[in-house]
Amino acid sequence: MPQFAYKGRDSHGQLVQGVLEGVDSGAVAGQLFGIGVTPLEIAPTTVSAQAGPGLLERLNAPKIGDTDVLLFCRHMYTLLKAGVPIMGALKGLQESGESKALTGIIQDLRENLDSGRELSSCLARHPKVFDPFYVSMVRVGELTGTLEEVFLRLFNHLEFEKFMREQVKSAVRYPSFVVGAMALAIVIINIFVIPAFAKVYAGFKTELPAMTKALIGFSNFMVAYWPVMLVALVVAVLMFRAYIGTTLGRLKWDEFKMKIPIAGPIILKATLARFARSFALAIRSGVPAVQALTIVANTVDNTHVARKIASMREGVERGESVLKTALAASIFTPIVLQMVAVGEETGALDDLMAEIADMYQREVEYDLKSLASQIEPVLIVSLGVMVLILALGVFLPIWDLGSAALGKK
Prior knowledge:
Elements: E1 3-9, E2 15-21, H1 25-34, E3 38-45, H2 55-60, H3 66-81, H4 86-96, H5 100-114, H6 119-123, H7 132-144, H8 147-202, H9 210-244, H10 247-257, H11 263-284, H12 289-296, H13 303-317, H14 322-329, H15 334-346, H16 349-369, H17 371-408
Antiparallel strand pairs: 1-2, 1-3
Helix pairs in contact: 3-4, 3-8, 4-5, 7-8, 8-9, 8-11, 8-16, 8-17, 9-17, 11-12, 11-16, 12-13, 13-14, 14-15, 15-16
């Protein structure tokens, strides 16, 4: 997503600045309001939020994993539920923490809490670890006095997020591995196998079949120009990564992922499950619908869907219902739209959105179980066609030579 540099003032009137990701400047402004910061200036930027340390320091710096944040939420809930003050809870986590990176962040949280800042404002200083949605939920917990309950909900939410990401990765791992193995096999055959047969055919001194000529020609091209092809592949990968690093490129790539046969619908369902779960949590915690849509748009990790959610937010701001905006977004199935309608009519939108998330999760799990059976026929046919072309190209000259020899006899 595009990045925006901002300047603003927190609840204590102190000037704060940094970099946030968002669909547009309006979404970033919503994030800032959600964490208690009044924006003064928002402008697009290409500077990373973590641009302070040098490249070597960033590479050598210890990483904070999803499990670290999960455990942080769970431990904070347990300690706050037991009546331990926030400062005491953070001190205990810092002393018993196994992650050096997270320990350093907890130390920074304690120092800023000592200076009179709120916990949500302290968390907002580390956007790479605690995203705007996380910070907004903590702020809601501070305002409503249910901070320990919010940490429990965040733990369940992050556990669900981690599960869905792993499900999506597993959905594309198998076909990617098979396609990669087939590509490697083609390279090996063309560089090492076909040239050996070509030397044998050269002694036949006879006209070769068209398919054999094509295979030998392609093999000769790969043998002669494989360094150029390797460089071209590396350049193509770098150009692709640079392209998806742009706003338009990322949008097109995220939209294309949804259209990939077989795997695309699974990715879409997983993304919508994350949206529904995040939106349910925000509404249940007391966040207004407009603000909830703003901060949730940045949790789906897909620019295409994030723009759809941003359009929903704009519709709700104009006074339209969530159902009407969801219908206009054109990313939800009819049964989901019916559940949204019932949720708005009964005032239980959070519960219905949680049901939608559960429904999408079950569908993703079912699709993943049947993924192998859907992909295997396609892969078998592709592999069969490749083997048929190679077999005909390699053995047709031998077969023709044998037939000629038999005919002379």
